[in-house]
Amino acid sequence: MRVALTIDTEQRGRPADEGNPARLLDVLAATGTSATFFVQGRWAGASRDLARRIRDDGHLIGNHSYYHAPLNMLTPEGMRSTVERADIVILEVTGVDPRPWFRCPYGEGADDTQVLETLAALGYRNVGWDVDPEDWADGRSVDDVVETIVSGCAAHGDGARVLVHSWPDVTVAALPRVIAELRATGAELVRIDELGA
Length: 197
What we know:
Structural class: alpha/beta
Largest sheet: 5 strands, parallel
Strand content: 5-15%
């Protein structure tokens, strides 16, 4: 069973330790785990060393817009602007073109024809998720996050796409257990581009 760990990498949405993105990368490196990072352009511009480390550690980089605004609330011009601005920053900082991988902020617009057509015209396709432990939500425990991910992947089967975020304290604390427990079930942790879909 293949599982794609996808990590939305953006400015913190709630109070959390500012060192969490680096710690998360440390966990991935220590466990030999590859992941897909959907990088917010504004975050990449402010966190250049970490953005380059994502590349250097061999992770796949996708675009998560520049401002993290719901795309279905923007005009087509606004959508193009936030996607293209993120393109410029991500490419400048990492040397990596994030196409064709894109994740709509908050998932908003993932089923909106105008959003998807605009993304396609820019060379992107939206990548959704199958398992969401809501690691960003107040009150989520390490056990909650681990159980939701492991049971959700088992229920989904091959090709499950897991959504987590790079900034929450609970995510960094849960990740070693998530990786160990998924591997104990026989799961292979892969990047989105290795799912063949």
